[in-house]
Amino acid sequence: MSLIKEDLQDLLLKFCEPESRLLQRIDRETHLKVLMPRMLSGHYQGRVLSLLSKMVSPKRILEIGTFTGYATLCLAEGLADDGILFTLDINVELEDRVRGYFSESPFNSKIKYILGDATHTVNDLDECFDLVFIDADKKNNGTYYDLVFDRVRPGGIIIVDNVLWSGKVLTQQQDKDTKNISTFNDKVAADDRVEKLILPVRDGLFIIRKK
C-alpha cells in the first residue's frame, strides 16, 4: 500500500517519534488476529496524524472509521485538555478489542466510541469540529465530506486517507473503487471553500483546510 520503497520507509522511521508500547501492541495484534490488517495506519502515518493533531490542538475531533483504534489514539495525542474525540465505526465484532485498547490508554475518558452507520450517527453529534479524519468505506468519501463540512469550524482540518489508492488513480482503465476515489479527489480539487494538498504518506493523505 505504501508508495515509498521499504528501505526509504525504514529510514524515515529513524527520524520520527517512536510508538508507545500500546500502539506497538495494537499493530502486532491487528496483524495477527484481525482481517485486513493493512487498514491500520501504522507507525509512520500514525506519527503524521499525531503531529497534525498537536499542531491544531483540537477541542473536538471526529474520526469516521475506527478499525482497531490505532489512528484514534494517535489523533487523541493532540487533544486540548478539555478535548473530546468522537470515533464512528460499524464493525461491532471489533468492539471489545477496541474498547480494551482505549481503556489502557491515557485518553480513554476523552474518547466517545460510537457504533453504527456513520452516515446516520454523525447526524446525532451536535458539535463543531476542529479536526476530522475520514478513513472508512471509500465509496462514501464524498458523502462523509458533505455531511461533516458544515460541522467543521473555519480554519479546521479534514484529513482523508487512501486517496492515492496504491497509485491506481494514475491508471486510465479504473475499477469501480478507483473511480470512486478519483471522483472524490476531483470534487475536493474543485471546491473553492478549502485549501488542499495530498501528502504521499503511505497510501495518500488528503489534507483539507476549510477557509
- Alpha-carbon distance between the two ends: 31 Å
Largest sheet: 7 strands, mixed
Radius of gyration: 16 Å
Task: Give the strand order, joined by hyphens, for the main sheet.
Answer: 3-2-1-4-5-7-6
Query: Low-confidence spans: pLDDT under 50, at least 5 residues?
Result: none
Give the topology string: H per helix, E per strand: HHHEHEHEHEHEHEE
What oligomeric state do the depicted chains represent? Answer: single chain
Calculate the mean pLDDT score and round it. 96
Global outline: globular
**Percent of sequence in beta strands:** 15-25%
Tally the helices.
8
Approximately how much helix is present in the residues?
Answer: 25-40%
Number of strands: 7
Derived from helix and strand composition plus strand pairing, the structural class reads alpha/beta
What is shown here, in short?
By secondary structure, this protein is α/β, with parallel strands linked by helices.
Topology:
Blueprint lengths: L5 H9 L6 H13 L8 H15 L3 E5 L5 H7 L7 E6 L5 H10 L6 E5 L2 H4 L7 E6 L6 H9 L2 E10 L14 H14 L4 E6 L5 E6 L1
Parallel strand pairs: 1-2, 1-4, 2-3, 4-5
Antiparallel strand pairs: 5-7, 6-7
How would you explain this protein's 3D organization?
It is a single chain. The protein has 211 residues and is of the alpha/beta class. 38% of the residues lie in helices and 21% in strands. The chain has helices at 6-14, 21-33, 42-56, 70-76, 95-104, 118-121, 141-149, 176-189, and strands at residues 60-64, 84-89, 111-115, 129-134, 152-161, 194-199, 205-210. A seven-stranded mixed beta sheet has the order 3-2-1-4-5-7-6, with helices on both faces. β1, α4 (70-76) and β2 (84-89) form a beta-alpha-beta unit. α3 runs parallel beside α4. The longest helix has 15 residues, at 42-56. The protein is globular. The two termini are 31 Å apart.
